[in-house]
């Protein structure tokens, strides 16, 4: 009986951690998640979400599974000075923890897309 208890706990632990899934997609304003998939988390890795901002305006998000080649490294306010973009990356390790929940400021994103469309039409004339 004592030998069964550790075996039961190890089976339960392996079952509970064997199939942790993460969301995987590029999330853009107005359209939401493009090419939505699910990925299985490898042992010792974490789900990650990278949100990209232009100033304070959200531009897009990248949701995916971390891998041994590209593990999740949590970073805040990482800046690409050439493009003027700010990156925030968060890590988590629960099932579907990097939820593609809506981001704030969709009206600003819609305004940006509309402005780009008007600029494109103006350039065509």
UniProtKB/TrEMBL annotation:
Among the Pfam families in the record, one is: UPAR_LY6
Give every UPAR/Ly6 domain span: 19-100
**Protein name as it appears in the record:** UPAR/Ly6 domain-containing protein
Q: Where is the signal peptide?
A: 1-18
UniProt keyword Signal, yes or no: yes
Gene Ontology cellular component terms for the protein in this record: external side of plasma membrane; protein-containing complex
Q: Provide the alphabetized UniProt keywords.
A: Signal
Entry's InterPro entries?
LY6_UPA_recep-like, LY6G6C, Snake_toxin-like_sf
What organism is listed for this UniProt entry?
Fukomys damarensis (Damaraland mole rat)
């Amino acid at each position: 009986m004592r030998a069964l208890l550790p075996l039961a706990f190890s089976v339960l632990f392996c079952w509970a951690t064997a199939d942790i899934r993460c969301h995987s997609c590029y999330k853009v304003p107005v359209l939401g998640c493009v090419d939505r998939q699910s990925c299985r988390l490898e042992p010792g890795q974490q789900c990650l979400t990278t949100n990209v901002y232009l100033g304070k305006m959200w531009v897009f998000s990248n949701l995916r599974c971390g891998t041994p080649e590209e593990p999740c490294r949590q970073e805040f306010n990482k800046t690409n000075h050439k493009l003027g973009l700010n990156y925030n990356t968060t890590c988590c390790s629960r099932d579907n923890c990097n939820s593609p929940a809506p981001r704030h400021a969709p009206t600003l994103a819609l305004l940006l897309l509309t402005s780009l469309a008007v600029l494109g039409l103006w350039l065509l004339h």
